[in-house]
Every structure is written in C-alpha cells, then in structure tokens.
Design a protein that fits this description.
single chain; Rossmann fold; 2 domains
C-alpha cells in the first residue's frame, strides 16, 4: 500500500493491522479521478486493476476466487458500482470493452454515494463545480440519465454479492439516506445486506476504526469468504 491512495487509510490503522494479522491479502487500487477523466474512466481503471490481481494470484500467493471489495466514500461508490454492475453487460465499464473474468464475493461499503439521482433535490450540489457534476459531466438535476448510469442502485438484482454498509449518523458530505437507499434496494432484491449507522460519526475518521466495527467487518468477511 505505497501509492498515493494510502493516505485515505490513515485513520484506519488498527483495521489495516487486523487485516494483515488475520492473513488477508490487501491491495490498494489507484485510479484516474474525475478531474482528470470523467465517468466511467475510474470504473475502467478499477476493473482493470482487479483483473490484474486475479490473473496474478498465483504469483503473489492469494486465493483469486475469494475477493471482497472495500471502499471509503468515492471508493465505496466504486466498490459498490463494480460489484453490482458486473452482471449487467456494461462493456464500457471495462478497459477495451472486455468484461472481467473475476467474481466479487462481497462488498464492504463505507459511506459511499449510492443514488446520484437523489442528489438532484439538493440545490447546493447541483452546481458545475461540485464533485458529482464533475464526475458525470453535468449536474444530476440537468442529466438524471447520467446520474442514474453512475449510481450503484441502478444495477441491483437478485444475483448480487452480499453487502456490509457502514456510514456515520452525522455525515455532512454524503447523506446517510444514501446508505439506507442502497440497503433497502438490496434487501428488496433478496440480496444479503447489513447496514450499520455509526452513532454521532461524521463522513470519515477514527470512529470507523473502533474495535466493535472491526468485529462486524471481520465477521462479515469470515461469513462471505468461506
């Protein structure tokens, strides 16, 4: 974990330590941000990186058939989107239009946006300078079609992998209704999903690195990576 995304995990040191001590293989994926290239470039980058890890599992010594995606904020959005869209024939989500041969076993989503269309009702977000507008190339209220295409909830179906969704009760950046929407859509489709709302927690920080959350995460992984 030496690339420039490592900083995103700075407040999760105890959790990262537990991953290593429990024998999990970790890979931190970097990708082009929306300020460099708009959607779906970052999805293509992540799918390409996962495919590389899948193809080189024997070289690095891990089980390629037990993959969990873990993401925080924008990373949570991408982790959810990649896992949910995998069985939706979204060829343009892959490098050179070639779908991956890997399969995602489960997802741990920390406070990632799930329904970008729902942001259309927030006038403070519907500006060209806001992150979602930069991501899709327009404000959600002006291009709900693009917002829908970039929304994880769009791709939910009964064949999706199980989810553990964790968000702060006091998140001022991503409304906690985003996680509630995702959890509800998954449950309605018959997909296993557990939502944990962390009391008093903001958008990120050491409150997500507490021991009780670690227990939830590793119990989920032990169940879904058998």
């Amino acid at each position: 974990m030496l690339n420039d995304k490592y900083a995103d995990m700075g407040y999760m040191k105890n959790t990262v330590k537990e991953f290593i001590e429990k024998g999990y293989a970790l890979a931190s994926i970097d990708y082009r941000h929306s300020t460099t290239k708009p959607f779906p470039a970052m999805v293509q980058d992540c799918n390409r990186a996962i495919q590389y890890l899948y193809n080189n599992a024997a070289k690095y010594g891990y089980d390629k058939n037990r993959i969990t995606l873990v993401g925080f904020s924008a990373g949570g959005h991408l982790a959810s989107l990649i896992a949910l869209s995998a069985n939706n024939n979204m060829n343009d989500f892959y490098y050179n239009g070639k779908p991956g041969t890997f399969k995602i076993s489960s997802v741990v989503d920390f406070y990632g946006p799930a329904d970008l269309v729902a942001f259309g009702s927030d006038t403070s977000i519907n500006k060209p300078s806001e992150p979602i507008a930069i991501l899709i190339g327009a404000a959600p209220v002006d291009r709900p079609d693009l917002a829908k295409r970039a929304s994880p909830v769009t791709y939910v179906d009964k064949d999706d992998p199980p989810f553990l969704i964790i968000q702060g009760e006091k998140d001022a950046s991503v409304p906690n209704t985003q996680s509630r929407y995702l959890d509800s859509w998954l449950r309605l489709a018959g997909v296993s999903s557990k939502l944990i709302m962390v009391p008093g927690a903001p958008h990120y920080g050491e409150m997500f690195d507490e021991e009780w959350i670690q227990r939830e995460v590793f119990a989920f992984l032990e169940k879904t990576l058998k």
